[in-house]
Amino acid sequence: MNTRTPQCTGFDSPVGMSRRQTLQSFGGGLGGMALAGLMGNKGSAADGVLHGLHHAAKAKRVIYLFQSGGPSQIELFDHKPRLVDETGEELPDSVRKGQRLTGMSGNQASLPLVGSPFAFQQHGQSGAWLSEVLPNTAKVADDITFVKSMYTEAINHGPGVTFMQTGSQFPGRPSMGSWLSYGLGSSNENLPSFVVLVTKNKGGQPLVSRLWGSGFLPGKHAGVRFRADKDAVLYLNSPDGIDPASRRKMLDRLGELHQHQLEKSGDVELETRIAQYEMAFRMQASIPEVTALENEPEATYQLYGEDARTPGTFAANCLMARRLAERGVQFIQLYHPGWDQHGGIPSGIKRQAKETDQASAALITDLKQRGMLDDTLVIWGGEFGRTNYCQGKIKATSFGRDHHPRCFTMWMAGGGVKAGYSHGETDEYGYNVQSDGVHIHDFHATVLHLLGIDHERLTHKYQGRYFRLTDVHGHVVKPLLA
User: Fold this and answer.
1) What's the structural domain count of the chain?
2) Domain encompassing residue 439
């Protein structure tokens, strides 16, 4: 466990001071800053608990393209000719090494190896191996860092997704975006610091709001979900008959009442409530502007693809992510379900790749053209990988793969990572990490490092101990850094 003195600990009071005195010594705490906004003062948008970065940051913002369900690394990124040659043969015990399996394939009498049906080629000066189903990602291969040696302890979706989002397999911890909002605050007082976009009308594993929740951190650090509907944020707009002037007057009076109560009780939840009311009022003007994708030029739609014209698609959300990043949103999380392919991989992978390949590559290209890629970290990946053996029986045109936590691939681009680089290797069967393994805690530590944060020093005291995103583990993967 981390034994060093924490550098930032939320709302813990200095020795000898009550919580109320501490809040007042900071000008009323965060609630005071929010109330200043209510009274017409600009104030500072950067209200995080870090009073300065721990070291120089390479990235100012993160766009995380989360692929829910566990994309098959064997069909996409991890070229394994031996699997093709030995398709139908039994998974050797010397390779499995007694690893536990899910209940979906653990009772199979046979675990036959199965190779990818797709052709692989090397691309760019880096020579990155990519499947034929990712032609657009192949074009930007020299901008990407491929991490082929990711691994996790989680073997099922609920714990796996929760682990990747929060650093713990157990629900209730703050999400990565919430930790960043808590530490860094916001650089745009008219938009949230953490925004969530979910592909509309997709099946797959359920995505629940706790995945972008703030856990035990103040509620204002939770992700704000933007929807592909008339009202991008639920309950944001005023009811019919309430004009902006009336709402402004109501918020002014409500802010005064909350401030009186805050001075009496020191309840930090009042700070959150005041800040959220004020943010909602400002967002009534900012949200329509940022979500107006129709104002983009025709060249943008040619870059991202026709799907970008349809609100709620992955392509439209990638375009929205760029617009949010331009306006100072620091953590933008996209969720794209549908990768849980226990059967029908050949057709399923093609469909998923068609939905995500062009837009993912376009986002890199777009950011690069605008001079934003250098300080924007783009991340692509799921919660775990897929097995090298077939779940069920192998058919000529249809087979499935089970969950596989022992090795999988993610990629990153921009934001201070080494471009045109592949990190780590799996064995020739694509079952175990062979070299340079990267655990989820290592991944989180590296992302925080790129943002100028020492992952051991961004902490919050809760129920008697100091928590952090990386729990009590993790190290920065220095070979990934540019």
Assistant:
1) 1
2) 58-232+301-460
Residues 441-471: tens digit of each pLDDT: 999 999 999 999 999 999 999 999 999 999 9
Please say whether the beta carbons of 331 and 448 come within 8 A: no
Comparing C-alpha atoms, which of 53, 61, 56 is closest to residue 7? Answer: 53
Q: What is the pLDDT of residues 405-446, one digit of tens each?
A: 999 999 999 999 999 999 999 999 999 999 999 999 999 999
User: CB within 8 A of 234, min separation 6: which ones?
Assistant: 227
Nearest Cα residue to 200 out of 336, 306, 329: 336
The span from the CA of 197 to the CA of 195, in Å, is: 7
The CATH code of the domain that includes 190 is: 3.40.720
H runs (alpha helix) in 2-134: 19-25, 29-38, 73-76, 81-85, 93-96
Integer-rounded Cα Rg, in Å, for the chain is 23
Q: What is the token pair recorded at 46?
A: 């950067």
Q: Is 258 among the domain residues?
A: no
Specify if 112 maps to a domain. Answer: yes
In sequence order, the 6+-apart residues with CB closer than 8 A to the CB of 252 are 38, 39
**Residue whose pair of structure tokens reads 């990638």 in the numeric block:** 318
For tokens 């398709």, name the residue.
87
